[in-house]
Amino acid sequence: MRLLADAVGVKAASLYNHISSKEELLRELLMDMARLFTQSMEEVQNAPLGPVEKLERLIADYVGYTVEHTDAISLLTGEWVHLDERPKQEFLTLRDNYEDGFRQILTDCMDAGHFNKIDVDIALFSTLSTLRWLYSWYSKHKEINQLKLEGQIKRVLIVGLRK
Amino acid sequence: MRLLADAVGVKAASLYNHISSKEELLRELLMDMARLFTQSMEEVQNAPLGPVEKLERLIADYVGYTVEHTDAISLLTGEWVHLDERPKQEFLTLRDNYEDGFRQILTDCMDAGHFNKIDVDIALFSTLSTLRWLYSWYSKHKEINQLKLEGQIKRVLIVGLRK
DNA sequence: CCTACCGATCGGTAGG
DNA sequence: CCTACCGATCGGTAGG
To answer: Separation of CA A107 and C1' C8 in angstroms?
Structure first.
């Protein structure tokens, strides 16, 4: 909180005229992001698209959020452990729902014959790993064109490396 | 240190008869792991194999280390930031060398015509993201067969999702 | 917004 | 191995 106050140009105690606790600050940040992803998932689920196009939309949204909210996204993967019990459960419910939606779309891709039938949990984990840690890569490569980044990520995830 | 002492069944102060500091403990853990990966890279680089087989060996080694040293591996990605300046630079040098070796093998795969020519940094980042966060997935799926895990990870990374 | 200050916690030391 | 205790740091409050 002292570092944060320094950055804003006030004393640490003064921050408490604006927020009620450090945890609240983290909570609002994380829940804002979680709601963004929930919205992305709902829109994609309700869109009149095939499963592969839905997956591509999810990837595009994730890359977009990462480019637009790099700093907030950097907290999303690891910092939720510091939330109080109640908000932590709320956050994890949204996160679980997102993962379930993602898993279902991957399953649909396989069932429709577009994807190879592999362990869907491994496909999900691998895809989300790349998306979740994109922010750390992007932080050092901010000069890259967003559309190019999006295209390359889709390609490496969906088409794979092999020619 | 108090939690650690509790787990071992002594008082916190007694730990300092065995180690000189908390940082030293972290340092030895991380450097042991870093040396393991350095060894893996050197063996693969010197093996009489094609680039795709080399990549497969790197993936197999990473999966193996994750299964064998899950707890230590869980510290490898994020906790090096807490090392003192000197050991941090040492660690990062080993890490950079590993990444450079990995990047070169991916480049070789593309140059030999086995892989599509995409941005090699994105291919590297995506592959390492999956491998680096495998431990968190594996912690919840310890029942999976190691060879199956290895095969599925290779497949999702190299062949991709698409049929 | 600030000064002054709190109780808890942390890594670690002294001394036996 | 232990007890006793340290200085620094942290999130946060009181009171103006």
So the answer is: 49
**Considering the domain boundaries, does residue B62 fall inside one?**
yes
Quote the domain boundaries for residue B153. 22-159
- 8 Å CB contact of B161 and A130: no
Task: Write out pLDDT tens, residues A102-149.
Answer: 999 999 999 999 999 999 999 999 999 999 999 999 999 999 999 999
- Interface contact A116-B159, CB threshold 8 A: yes
CB of A141 under 7 A from strand C? no
Tell me what pLDDT residue A163 has.
82
pLDDT confidence of A38, banded at 50, 70, 90? very high
pTM for this entry: 0.95
User: Mean pLDDT over all residues of chain B?
Assistant: 97
Residue A94 CA: distances (Å) to CA of A40, A103, A104: 12, 14, 15
- Domain of B70, CATH number, reads 1.10.357.10
- Average model confidence (pLDDT) across chain A: 97
Q: Cα dist. A153→A59, A109, A147, B120, B160 in Å?
A: 8, 18, 10, 11, 12
* B104 located within any domain: yes
Asked if strand D comes closer than 7 Å to B19 Cβ, the answer is: no
* Calpha distance A39→A25 (Å, rounded): 22
Residue B140 lies in a domain: yes
Q: Is the CB of A18 under 7 A from strand C?
A: yes
Query: Could you tell me if residue B149 is inside a domain?
Result: yes
Please state the domain count of chain B.
Answer: 1
Contact B160 A160 (CB under 8 A): yes
